[in-house]
Write a structure and sequence with these properties.
eight-stranded mixed beta sheet; two-stranded antiparallel ribbon; 10 strands; about 290 residues; alpha+beta; globular; about 20% strand
Length: about 290
């Protein structure tokens, strides 16, 4: 199995359609069920790094629904929360206002996300995974359906999602291509087949940020070494006190030594001065 990148002009129309569907769901959940939430496109889809399976042409987008506030009833019944969200999205997509010309499946209650599949005729084109996350005592919990036990549990979100600042740093340092290359390499590495795409993308981001930091430290170290060499030229380790005083005086515009050096330089550059003539006379010059 191999992967390649999907053009933005291909995936963007689908992204816009699902953005609109989820925003409608968000509004209904707030007005009817008093649930407030934040909707985030995450991972590769957020950063123009959507990949497709080269064999099937299938690609996907990942969203997080982050719950901020909800009623006690829904809080005590996470399964009801997920089913309510899924039912509203199903109703909106069945209205026929979105993804016209495509067949969109009803939401599947997968282990973690709610999954939608989009077909053109009989050909499967793409899918969307929507995970539900809620905060609990200063940590983030991803809602997981434990099918064997037929119950919902909250798994702590262990993978840190790249921040806007992380991506901005990568772009400012001209390393976006490096990020894309590393992510695609990870997707095509068979040893990574067990990892979700968002985990591989996070790894690629962290590696590029480390590269930037290493380069920055190296540049600082090189600069400091050069500064150290320049300082050594006038340090007390290889110059007498009188030499160092003279060097300091030459750099002081209020000192006679500085004015003498400047006058000498002016005379050498003055074609009407004897110093200029002697310094540029082929017979006297070495």
């Amino acid at each position: 199995m191999s992967y390649s990148y999907v053009s933005k002009k291909v995936y963007k129309p689908f992204k816009l359609e699902f953005d609109a569907i989820l925003l409608k769901m968000q509004k209904i959940m707030k007005t009817k069920y008093k649930v407030t939430m934040e909707i985030q496109l995450v991972g590769s889809g957020l950063n123009n790094c959507v990949t497709q399976d080269d064999t099937t042409g299938l690609w996907d987008l990942d969203y997080n629904i982050i719950i901020h506030k909800m009623s006690n009833d829904l809080s005590q019944s996470p399964g009801n929360l997920k089913n309510t969200i899924r039912g509203i999205i199903d109703h909106i997509k069945e209205s026929g206002e979105h993804l016209k010309g495509y067949n969109v499946s009803f939401g599947k209650n997968s282990t973690v996300p709610i999954t939608y599949k989009v077909k053109k005729g009989s050909k499967l084109i793409m899918s969307v995974d929507i995970a539900i996350i809620r905060y609990d005592k200063n940590c983030s919990l991803r809602l997981v359906f434990d099918k064997p036990a037929d119950q919902y549990i909250g798994n702590e979100v262990s993978s840190k999602f790249p921040s806007d600042q992380d991506i901005s740093t990568i772009k400012k340092n001209g390393m976006k291509s490096e990020l894309r290359n590393r992510y695609l390499q990870k997707k095509n590495d068979k040893r990574n087949s067990k990892y979700p795409s968002y985990v591989l993308f996070n790894q690629a981001v962290n590696e590029v940020l480390q590269l930037i930091e290493t380069h920055r430290n190296h540049s600082t170290s090189t600069h400091n070494k050069k500064e150290g060499k320049n300082m050594a030229k006038v340090s007390g380790n290889n110059h007498s006190k009188s030499q160092m005083n003279h060097h300091s005086n030459q750099s002081n515009p209020n000192n006679a030594a500085h004015r003498a050096a400047q006058n000498n330089r002016s005379n050498q550059l003055n074609p009407n001065n004897a110093q200029y003539k002697s310094g540029n006379n082929p017979k006297t010059s070495k």
